[in-house]
Specification:
This protein has 409 residues and is of the alpha/beta class. It folds into 2 domains: 21-277, HUPs (Rossmann fold), CATH 3.40.50.620; 300-405, Anticodon-binding domain of a subclass of class I aminoacyl-tRNA synthetases (Four Helix Bundle (Hemerythrin (Met), subunit A), Up-down Bundle), CATH 1.20.120. 43% of the residues lie in helices and 16% in strands. The chain is globular, with a radius of gyration of 22 Å. 47% of the residues are buried.
Length: 409
């Protein structure tokens, strides 16, 4: 599966700082100091609907991580999946009369368009669940054969007790896990499971559903969590730097994925840091496909909004915060974009060296994009009020905003 084209990242003078970021697994800040190649895995979409602002906010957060790393003169190895076979996708296809593969391809294509428009840096590997099945099957067989998984009426379940580190990612108690499991795709009430929290690794073929040859597992399709484990292990290996996604993925998805990988390899941890973005709401409720309260990136773009303004609307909120999308949020971003573009259009201006340092400091401080935006606002205000004589300043500001914030002026 192909990703989307990369926008050029301008070169900046000097070098950025190492990133300090909040790690869900420790509950506190960690300093990320990868080697020459920083490794990041971000969980992708289930393509049964278009990209909404909640998606965009999450991918914006991890785009900032990449940009901070690039500014430290590292390379970035970024991997993202597409869950192109799963119950929600099949249910939507059945409800709309679409072929499920055509629906997945159409919505994935629209996602690529949105990511391109928003100047999100693409992954090096962009891999669908269906594409990963040949890697998933032997992993499930190994877990089963080692006693870390078991069969129940043809389905294969992972035993959470096979990983002594289970629970360390989300740091939730068993009752909270059980509630979230039921809400987020698990089946804690199914009779016969060794532990209500045990997640499915391989679903035996159901009538009318797509299925694939699972060798000794029989025909079926993969569970949700093992998909990301197979892709991450194949392309990044154990101990990669950041596992990322929305805060609703901490449990069960990232918790279960870590346990699958740790049981498979005998190594710990799966990822050095688990980083989670906040949720975006509309009309007081989390923006989600199940509730239908979505603002689509493609719709806002079709209405004539510059994608740079959409990105500024996302950047105006700290990535870990839960916030609400409103018309006022977008209006403010449109106005900010106009001010910034007017400021950099002049032939000279106030020195921007200090501004570059401020942006770097803000982003290294747990991706504090609101502080970075405020710093650019101050420079633009000074430009509007008094101007300056530094002929290189507007160009440096434009390059810094592009390279570090992904906003083209």
């Amino acid at each position: 599966m192909h990703a989307w084209p990369a926008s050029e990242v301008p070169a900046l003078p000097g070098q950025g700082r190492d990133l300090e970021i909040h790690d869900t697994a420790t509950g506190g800040r960690v300093t990320l100091a990868p080697g020459p190649v920083a490794r990041i895995y971000v969980c992708g979409i289930t393509p049964y609907d278009a990209t909404h602002m909640g998606h965009a906010a999450t991918y914006n957060a991890f785009d900032l991580v990449q940009r901070v790393w690039l500014d430290t003169k590292r390379q970035v190895h970024y991997v993202q999946n597409v869950t192109d076979v799963d119950d929600p996708l099949l249910e939507r296809a059945l409800a709309t009369g679409d072929d499920w593969t055509a629906l997945a391809e159409r919505e994935t294509a629209l996602f690529r368009e949105d990511m391109t428009a928003l100047r999100m840096l693409p992954p090096r590997e962009y891999v669908g669940a269906v594409e990963a099945i040949p890697w998933i099957v032997p992993m499930v067989e190994r877990l089963r054969d080692s006693g870390a998984a078991y069969e129940l009426e043809g389905d294969i379940y992972f035993s959470v007790e096979a990983d002594r580190h289970f629970g360390e990612v989300s740091r939730l108690d068993a009752e909270a896990m059980r509630v979230l499991s039921a809400e987020r795709g698990g089946d804690p009430e199914r009779p016969g499971k060794k532990n209500p929290l045990d997640p499915m690794l391989w679903m035996a073929a159901r009538e009318g559903d797509p299925s694939w040859d699972g060798a000794s597992l029989g025909r079926g399709r993969p569970g949700w969590h093992i998909e990301c484990v197979a892709i991450a292990l194949r392309h990044l290996g154990m101990g990669f730097d950041v596992q990322g996604g929305g805060s609703d993925l901490a449990f069960p998805h990232h918790e279960m994925g870590a346990s699958h990988a740790q049981a498979l390899t005998g190594e710990h941890p799966f990822a050095q840091a688990y980083v989670h973005a906040g949720m975006v709401a509309l009309n007081g409720e989390k923006m989600s496909k199940s509730k239908g309260n979505l603002v689509f990136v493609s719709k806002v773009r079709r209405d004539g909004t510059d994608p740079a303004a959409i990105r500024l609307a996302l950047l105006a909120h700290h990535y870990r915060a839960d916030w609400e999308w409103t018309d006022a949020v977008l209006d403010e971003a449109v106005e900010r974009l106009a001010r910034w573009r007017a400021a950099v259009s002049r032939p000279d201006g106030p020195s921007a060296d200090a501004l570059l340092a401020e942006i770097r400091t803000a982003l290294a401080d747990d991706l504090d994009s609101p502080a970075a935006l405020a710093a650019v606002d101050r420079w633009a205000a000074a430009q509007a009020a008094d101007g300056g004589s530094d002929e290189g300043a507007p160009g440096l500001v434009s390059r810094a905003v592009d390279a570090l914030l992904g906003v083209a002026l």
